Structure formats: C-alpha cells, structure tokens
Amino acid sequence: MTDELSRNERIKEASNYLRGTLADGLREEITGAIIEDDAQLVKFHGMYLQDDRDLRPERTRKKMEKAFSFMIRVRIPGGVLSPRQWLALDEVARVYGNGTMRLTTRQTVQLHGVIKSNLKATLKTIDEVLLNSIAACGDINRNVMCNVLPEQSRAHAAAIDMARTISDDLLPHTPAYREIWLDGERIAGGEEEVVEPIYGKTYLPRKFKIVVAVPPSNDVDVFAHDLGYIAIVDGAGDVVGWNVTVGGGMGMTHGEPDTYPRTADIIGFCQTTDAVKIAEAVVTVQRDWGDRKNRKHARLKYTIEDRGLDNFRAEVEKRSGVKLARAKSYTFTSTGDRYGWTEGADGRGHLTLFVQNGRVHDVDGASQQTALRTIAQVHYGDFRITPNQNLVIANVPTSQQAEIERIAREAGLLAPWSGLRRNSMACVALPTCGLALAESERYLPELVDALDQKLAAHGLSADDIVIRMTGCPNGCARPYLAEIGLVGKGPGRYNLYLGAAFDGSRMNKLYAEDLDHAGIVAALDPLFAAYAKERQKGERFGDYAIRSGAIAASGNGTDFHANVRAYKPK
Ligand code: SRM
Ligand code: SF4
Predict the structure, then answer these.
(1) Ligand 2 site, residue 114, Cβ cutoff 6 A
(2) What is the pTM of this model?
C-alpha cells in the first residue's frame, strides 16, 4: 500500500480540466498514437487508444509501429436513437471506422478503428445529429442506462426521463471537448474560468455507472452498477418512487482476492423529485471518500465495504438533505430481452431483434448492417439499444410492421434462436481490447453451437439459460451475473462460473479453472443432463446448480472467492 496518489490523479490534476496536450497530439503526424498521459485523458472524451492485436506479430517483425486507431464510445442515455442518428453512426462507421457498429452492454454504440486524423471529422459528423462522446469513458459518470420496455409506456417514460435528467446533471462542465474536437473557441483564462461544481479538478477516483430499472425486467442488471434506481410502479402503471441501490461492480483481477465483483445493496426508497439530489450526494461522497491511491480499490463498492453501508447511507442523507424511506417491495423476473413484437399502449409495435454480441455488420449470408440502414431509411419511430447488446425497432405504426419485419427476418435478425443463444452475451475482447487475455466475441458463437448440440440431446434447446463470456476478469459482459459465466484466463482458456440467479439478484461462483473448448463442453454436459432429469417445476439452471450441490451460493461478493469447490476435469 502506498501513500502516493495514483498516476492518473496527477494526470487529471495537471490536465487543465481534461485538455492536457490533446490538441497538439492530434496534429502530430509522425505517429498514429498520442502520448500516454493524453491517452488517459482522451477516455473522458469517450475515446480509447487501441491497436489491432491481430497485426502485432507481423508489425513487430517488420519493425513497424503498432496499427494504432481509436475506439469511440457514443453517449446515448437509455440507448435511444432516432433513425437519423442511427444513419449518421452507420455512415461514420463505414467512412471513418472499421465498417462495423458495436452495440454495447451499456446501451451505447462503439466505433472501432478510427485513425487519429479522422477523429475530428467523425465527432463533427455525429455532433450534427446531436450526439457526442463526452464522458462515455473516464473517471466520471458514464452513460446512464435505462430499462427498455416500451410497451409499459408510462413507467418507461418516467424511467427514461430520470435517466436523461441524471445524465445531464452529472455531465462535466469543461469546454475541453468542444474546443478540441469541434474547433470551439478556447475560453479566455482557461482553468480559472472552468467550474466543475460536482467533480472539481480531479473528477472521480474511478469510473462511475448509473442505471434505472423498471420491474419485472432487470435487463439493466441493476445490481452490477455503482448507483441504481428501481421503479416502484402502482397498479395503474405509474411510478410512485424509486428504491436506491449502491455499490455494485463486476471488475476483479485473477489471483488477487482483494478484488471481487459485488452486487449492490438497496439503501432505501426516494421520491422522483429527490432522485437527482441522491445521485449528486452518492457521487460526491465517492468523490471525497473513494481511494485515489490504488485504482484497483477505487470503485464505490470498496468505499462502501471500507466505510460501512450505514455510515455511507447517513452521509448521503446528510449531503442530499433527503431521508430515505424503507425500501418497497418489487419483483424482478429476468435480465434478458423479450424478442419479437410487443404492442404499446398506443397501438404502435416494438420489434426486438437479436444482434449476436452486438456486432452490426454485413457478413456472408447476413447483411444485417444494410438491413438496419434500410429500416432506418423508412422508419419514423426510434431505435433502442438494449443492455444485452440487442436492438429494438420501437414505435412502428401498424402500416409499417410487415415491411420492417420482412427486412429484419431476411437479415437473420429474427431467427428462431436456441434458449442459450438468445441469452448469450460476449464482450469485445480481441483484436481491439488491450486487456483481453482470451477471445470472447469471436469465440462465443462457436461455443454456443457446441453447447446447443448437447442441450438438444437433453431436450433443453428451448430453455432460457443465461451464458456470458469475457476475455478477461474485468467483467464487461457482466459474466458473474450469468448462470454460465466464462472468463478468459489465457489464450483459448477460460474459468467457468456457475450458480447465478436468472433475475440478476445473485452472482455465480468459480466452478472450474483454466478449461479449453473441449473442457468447457465436458464440464457442462453432465450438468445439463442432470438438470434435464432432476429439475423441479420452473427451476432455473443457476438455482439447480446450487440445489444439486454442484456449487455454493454467492452472497454480495465479499464471499465471492470463498467456498469454491475445485472441479477437476476428467
Ligand atoms: Fe468494460 C475496460 C469494453 C461494459 C468493466 N471495457 C474496458 C475497455 C475500454 C478496455 C480498456 O480499458 O482498454 C474495453 C474496450 C474493448 C473494445 O475494444 O471495445 C471495454 N466495457 C466494454 C464494452 C464495449 C463491452 C461490450 O462488449 O459491450 C462495454 C461498454 C459499455 C458502455 O457502452 O459504456 C463495457 N465494462 C462494462 C461493464 C458492464 C456494465 O457496466 O454494465 C463492466 C462491469 C461493470 C463494472 O464497471 O464494474 C465493465 N471495463 C470494465 C473494467 C473493470 C472495472 C473495474 O472496476 O475493475 C475495465 C478495466 C478498467 O476499468 O480498468 C473495462
Ligand atoms: Fe476487454 Fe476484458 Fe472488457 Fe472483455 S472484459 S472487453 S477483454 S476489458
């Protein structure tokens, strides 16, 4: 343990409110990269410096610089886009990016492969349709997620309203983004003129994530985030207030038991009019109490464990001036999406499409990107990115439903997927993610093929079972909340986690370590067989894994690494 502030704290402090030397670095033509300090700062502007890891060996051999490019993450509160905005993102992906769009687990769109000289043009184009990437990454509040349930329209309206209000309230005030990317005028006087009332000069100790859920759907995985609001809905379908959750997070590091994923605690109930005050108080307590020395211990979940939940709640109440009431009852039933058509209260239809791992592209036999572009050209409603990397074509009038369904069906966006595949999610991982230890997005579909064969043999093809994979333990696809969680350990090797609840309320636990493809299939097949034979009526796979004794149940995460029984592959 060191007494020194982490390097990132010094970078933020010296950055003059997130400017650093980014403007100069962009003009530097000798390299496709930017200097390391600026690479940390550019995250606050919604961008990551990456390189194509597939090309590393060849470029090293040829003594060339890495194939640098940037990933841009767009800020889209609640995941709602107009057709015009969709078309603009589709266009910049093809003109400036690697040609694909990536729907993320937090309802945004990522563009990969944008080279340095194209960054400004990309951001200017999306600015024209009122989109930006401010604070989509970095030590700050990020995209606020919101339940995608258009058919329950009054509750959904309240939820999206909350998500947008909180998102706007917690935006950074620095004009650095406008100055650097949109050629906005530099404010005379610089630093002194900029006021960040919530964040101050050094922003937050670490990333911060907020979600809004509307039961019975827990599609946002409310317990995985720093701060959450669960809508309490009355019999007439109106929101009467919100249960407040704090201290969720997924990231951990292999072999470091001091790091662990944690499910959030519910600290009470608040009225809609108090929700922003609560958000500001939670954020500022974390700003002041969070660990700025050790970034692996800097998320709110550790602040709460260190300071105690009651102490934390009391400080939030003091700063907000809001006394939280006792939490109200609610029921979640699932974390997944409902595919196909649902009808809204006003008779308009909402079509949920399955986009495998969120990757929107045209590949042999399925021109999904072209199909979605065609839909955007004729559609007057909106597009909603789900927290499960899928897409809803929302608010479609009856007259257009057949045409839109036909386009989606022909592109394979409505195929009759198995219960496992429609509940599958993989993080990006290779080749763009610098932290990946193993494949994820490029491998999970193949693994699901193999597991589907086994499930079919046991008569389980139609059963909903949640499977999520990540290429490293950071948890970007929330694998610790999946009934089957697979987390990359090294090339082609994964740790297998079992026993999470289908509704997202309980995490899984380590079942087997360091498995290859054959090992994963061999470990799961006997469990599928036993589940098919022994399950009780309505019993979910994750619950069965615990009842059958295959795995112990996890608590909130402080026990995540405890009671692990080592399964040994035969
Ligand atoms: Fe994530 C870092 C991708 C959701 C926990 N995440 C990364 C980076 C930026 C790698 C990096 O730092 O260099 C990945 C970029 C890969 C690429 O090439 O695109 C990355 N994270 C993603 C996305 C795109 C996964 C996806 O396949 O959809 C998701 C983008 C969300 C968005 O639109 O804002 C994404 N990341 C998440 C989630 C899920 C969530 O929030 O619901 C988590 C777990 C929840 C949490 O935060 O605890 C998550 N990402 C992390 C972490 C671990 C944080 C921690 O507390 O330890 C890192 C690494 C870090 O921060 O040091 C990380
Ligand atoms: Fe990269 Fe790891 Fe996140 Fe996957 S989980 S995108 S490998 S940081």
Answers:
(1) no
(2) 0.97
